[in-house]
Amino acid sequence: MVDMFKILDCTIRDGGYYTNWDFNKALVDQYIESMNKLPVDYLEIGYRSKPLQGYLGKYFYNPSYELLDLKSKSNKKLVVILNEKDVRVEHLDELLTPIKGIIDMVRIAIDPEHLGRAISLAEGIKKMGFEVGFNVMYMSKWNQYSNFMGDLKFVDGVADYFYMVDSYGGVFPKDVIETIGLVKSNTAVKLGFHGHNNLELALINSLTAVEHGVEIIDSTVWGMGRGAGNLKTELLLAVLNSKYGLSIDFNALGDAVSAFDDLLRKYEWGTNLPYMISGSNSLPQKDVMDWVTTRFYSFNSIIRALQNQKEKVKDNERLPLFEPQSKSKQILIIAGGKSASEHASAVLEFVKQNEDMTIIHASSKNAYSYKDIKNEQIFCLIGNEGRRMEKVFDDFGHFNGICVLPPYPRKMGTYVPELVYGRTFELPAIDFTSDFKDSHTALALQTALTLGAEKIYVIGYDGYQDVPISSKERTLTNENEALFAAFHDTSDVELYTLISSNYSILKEQSLYSLLD
Amino acid sequence: MVDMFKILDCTIRDGGYYTNWDFNKALVDQYIESMNKLPVDYLEIGYRSKPLQGYLGKYFYNPSYELLDLKSKSNKKLVVILNEKDVRVEHLDELLTPIKGIIDMVRIAIDPEHLGRAISLAEGIKKMGFEVGFNVMYMSKWNQYSNFMGDLKFVDGVADYFYMVDSYGGVFPKDVIETIGLVKSNTAVKLGFHGHNNLELALINSLTAVEHGVEIIDSTVWGMGRGAGNLKTELLLAVLNSKYGLSIDFNALGDAVSAFDDLLRKYEWGTNLPYMISGSNSLPQKDVMDWVTTRFYSFNSIIRALQNQKEKVKDNERLPLFEPQSKSKQILIIAGGKSASEHASAVLEFVKQNEDMTIIHASSKNAYSYKDIKNEQIFCLIGNEGRRMEKVFDDFGHFNGICVLPPYPRKMGTYVPELVYGRTFELPAIDFTSDFKDSHTALALQTALTLGAEKIYVIGYDGYQDVPISSKERTLTNENEALFAAFHDTSDVELYTLISSNYSILKEQSLYSLLD
């Protein structure tokens, strides 16, 4: 059996979803060296792409000098992938001419809706002398696209490999067999399989695919890849060795695996309950990955959002719009950072001395200290904040604030603690920024604008002064920085931090200078 | 389908292999509370056992007051397990009478060789009014036991459930089907399946088992369990929900999973390359778990040992016996702790001033500093030390020492760097201790005894003075302590540490007091 199919390792390409396509060069060299000793046929090194907005790393663009270096060190066929949605035939010359003779195969990531467009693109790539791989997403839904199966005949002679991609990680071996049967009845192209591991079925699905005639399999070291990740190269090779007698240099394989240990500890990819739910219900895992890795939303909040998506409830009810009757010239935004709890007694004194000042709680984390004050208080309920609020306020008897949510519809749904239901509103829009609208800070700042703020104090935006900071913390810090900058660009209201902060865009005004 | 089988969650019992059967009480309470809301039928809370040597935690003995407390909080049937090898019929009264009316089912972990003995034990348990579960290990090898299949008929009427345990984690769905067929042709007992996840096949094997008539399935939260772990409860439930319509309270499930997050980060159970190799080759994972979690041997060393086991080479050649011609009255053992490198220049001075002193390198870690001295030097090659030595001595031109290995046969095999091959010996025996013979310290101390030592200095045994220490470090520290104590009990040679140490059994004598 093992002679009948090929293996494509796409660790660098798919692992890039965690590292933003930057990898330490020594790691990549170790990877190449280890793979040289292993029965893997192709290595996919990342994307090629026109310049896109925002920072994306080396292996998203793969400049030819880098590919040339890898080519000189590798005895494998090298592969890059293009995103069909971003690339048209007229871009091919610019994208692919520099890597002719270096790269052996060009793959195309394809939405099944655009199979026709992908075929035109593939013809262009083929003419330039590359092998062509089709990576067609959402295999579990192909039968829902009306022309898809009929159009498969046009793939013959254009694609060298036609990959079925289990995008959601939810297919079972019987589904693999069924899809192979359907595809094979429409085209003679060689088939490939790219399995995701949400349900820990990547191995059995891949072996099943091969038994039913699939000729190329994707895998990655430690399964590194978007969301729950992929079939693990080391698992595939260990099983091919023990069950099918394929000879493996386990020292080389051990080196490849060990090289990625540190990244695994840092990013902790792999399946978990949210990915299992999204996988088994064919829900997209892009959002789930963001919720799990960046926003540290609780499993329960994520699960609730996923359940709602699944039931198409979307848990998204329209709430009354937030339309404050009177303006609040002075605002204090209290965020979740340490300074807000460390200086809580002084802040309490400050708001008592300024009872016309409105308090906006960007997070409920430090809110309980303020339960008895007379100032107007507004709570930002984003993500799982409603649940956190319920934990912070074990007793809502004292609660006299109001709650605001982002505009309808909300990705994470609408969760409002029952006891504050009548006092909860949604913003009509978040319009001072085009990014990160789904964050505490965006909601708090927009609320302040809606209130007609003329001066905004903030506390609890510390910018993670403790080092080392985690990558999650860095992401959130960068987000806040971008939001403060966008606010600064679109509004002439100044933001003052009451405690020294690492956000340099905030003006500093000592809390203690403002107390009587 | 979901009405046709039961689920037994054995997180506390099987997770105890990582925590030594101690779990924070709040965690256990959270677990019980979450399980109350989930469609799980039985909870296995751990072992019951006569007192065994060494420390084993609460859930290995399960005193009745604890089980009574859990019983009052749980709406599930509760289970404990006995190790057949440690329990005879005459122990049953003492072990089980105190938990009558609290525990619903008693399981027995059974080596297939002792099926007959287990049946007698089960009859006793049954008479006391408990449900009885058989957990029979090594299902992949049952056909190698001559009377096993024939004896299965005696299980009828004695066992309520007869579990097939995939001890190695190496069976595939087709093997599950085959074994079920064999067992069913010999007995009418209800079947169970306990799957290990080395090859990420626990889910598909369990679902396959159920489709072929198995009536109870084991799982654990996050798959927590010995070695690579088990079928994940959350994965089973997520799939039963999405594919078979079983109603699941995902908030409760999320709470159960989140409760074990910290333990997962601490112990990092789950599959990895060594477990994949042991699983797919039916090699016992007890040793692998020790190598991976306690001894931090490199993947490559472990893989090499496993490959050798698999090929029955065992990589175990007989080496010449270590029979020193002359005695060495004074010995210095240099271990891997920080003090040995921090005080290296003074130690170098000390050995130069005492050229008749023999140096024993318990680890090669700090050895390179001593490459030019004239003293006799002995290197202890245990586990992967031969490979470490090759890294430390990138040039063996200077090497004039000899190497010693533990007695034949060696679990981790025989790895000797090529250039020291003619200068390498094995000890005839390690006899001053009955435990931890497979360690650097045991080998070094035995070597010192073989040399006829009258006074032994040690350095680099610091006892992990930095806090917090990891559980790996604690295990090694405990081992060394036990070895020093065993040495102290069997020999009147004193051990002096040259630098202050946390091992209180070592006498202190300042390195600096011994220098001219």
From TrEMBL, chains A, B:
Catalytic activity line of the entry: pyruvate + acetyl-CoA + H2O = (3R)-citramalate + CoA + H(+)
Record pathway: Amino-acid biosynthesis
A GO biological process held by the record: carboxylic acid metabolic process
Classification via InterPro entries: Aldolase_TIM (IPR013785), Citramal_synthase (IPR005675), PYR_CT (IPR000891)
GO MF annotations, alphabetized: (R)-citramalate synthase activity; acyltransferase activity, acyl groups converted into alkyl on transfer
Endpoints of the signal sequence: none
Keywords, ordered alphabetically: Pyruvate
SUPFAM superfamilies: Aldolase
Pyruvate carboxyltransferase domain residues: 5-254
Protein name in the entry: Pyruvate carboxyltransferase
PANTHER family with a match to the protein in the record: (R)-CITRAMALATE SYNTHASE, ALPHA-IPM SYNTHASE/HOMOCITRATE SYNTHASE
CDD domains: DRE_TIM_HOA_like
Claim: Transcription is one of the keywords in the record: no
Pfam families: HMGL-like (PF00682)
